[in-house]
Amino acid sequence: MKHKSSLQLTVIALIIAGFFYENPYFIYIILGIVTAYVISLICGSGLIQLNYFVDSINKSSKDGIAITFDDGPDPQFTPQVLDILAKENVKAAFFVIGHKIEANKELLKRIHDEGHTIGNHSFSHTKKLTTSTTTLLREDFLKCSNSIKSVINKDPKFFRPPYGVTNPRYKRAIMALSLKSIGWSVRSLDTKTNAPNQLKSRILKKIFNGSILLFHDTQQVTVETLPDIIQHCKNNGINIVSLPELIDQKAYGQ
Ligand SMILES: [Zn+2]
């Protein structure tokens, strides 16, 4: 359900509840309706798959899966990820943090030159973004796009909200910049574990055709697990395709 629909439902429920104002449980009815609305706001803001505030692409109806990495470019781990992808002949998408680009321009160029997709993951990637105004969000996202463009000479159109958090201001900023929000259907949680086997067993049972996998090219455990994930897909006839191909969208503008 979208935010607008849940707001309309809440208003209708409050109006109907108003007819029962003489009921001894009136206050509890009102509290119940308001609580349900607040819970829907919290879930809608934190769970990108709900498409509550922002329409995100979280999976595809096409065959194949796409692998995505957030939070790079990282001088230690991104090159190792790129080496694995090159060896396995797999194309992935990298949602990069703008402020990391200046010190890692050659690495960003390498990602692009090796045929991977580069997307915008905000410039600052701070938790503060969740409470920022539309203007500040727009400036932050644009700064990231411009940093990417200054290195690869292409304007990224894919955007992944940091922490998967969205709200109405994100929607306005994303629309103003003509960005396309990209979520995921399989969250590896590779930032929460150091155990490759644990990570592997969690991910493998969730991979189906159409899946978009979320990893971070900032983790040793990701580097250690990635070859097995790719091998599992190859053994099970699951094609790993590029993100633009899986979702049938252009990754770059003019
Ligand atoms: Zn991130």
Topology:
Blueprint: H1 3-18, H2 26-46, E1 56-57, E2 66-70, H3 78-88, E3 93-96, H4 105-113, E4 117-120, H5 134-152, E5 158-159, H6 168-176, E6 180-182, E7 186-187, H7 196-204, E8 212-216, H8 220-235, H9 243-247
Parallel strand pairs: 1-6, 2-3, 2-8, 3-4, 5-6, 7-8
The protein binds zinc ion (ZN).
Tags for this entry?
single chain; 254 residues; alpha/beta; TIM Barrel; 2 domains; five-stranded parallel β-sheet; three-stranded parallel β-sheet; 9 helices; 8 strands; 11% strand; globular; binds zinc ion
Bound ligands, named by name, code or SMILES: zinc ion
What is the CATH superfamily of the largest domain? Glycoside hydrolase/deacetylase
CATH fold assignment of the largest domain: TIM Barrel
Percent strand: 5-15%
- Biggest β-sheet: strands ordered side by side in the sheet: 4-3-2-8-7
Helicity level, as a percent range?
40-55%
**Tertiary shape:** globular
- What's the pLDDT, averaged over the residues? 93
N-to-C CA distance = 34 Å
CATH architecture of the largest domain: Alpha-Beta Barrel
Number of domains: 2
The CATH class of the largest domain is Alpha Beta
Structural class: alpha/beta
Order of helices and strands: HHEEHEHEHEHEEHEHH
Tell me the number of strands: 8
Biggest pleated sheet: 5 strands, parallel
Q: Can you describe this structure?
A:
With 254 residues, the chain is α/β, with parallel strands linked by helices. Helix 1 packs antiparallel against helix 2, helix 3 (78-88) packs parallel to helix 8 and helix 7 (196-204) packs parallel to helix 8. The model has no long low-confidence stretch (mean pLDDT 93). The chain is 45% helix and 11% strand. The strands form two sheets. The protein has a five-stranded parallel sheet with strand order 4-3-2-8-7. It has helices at residues 3-18, 26-46, 78-88, 105-113, 134-152, 168-176, 196-204, 220-235, 243-247; strands at 56-57, 66-70, 93-96, 117-120, 158-159, 180-182, 186-187, 212-216. The protein is globular and about 70 Å long. The protein has two domains: 3-46; 56-247, Glycoside hydrolase/deacetylase (TIM Barrel). The site of zinc ion has 5 residues, from loops.
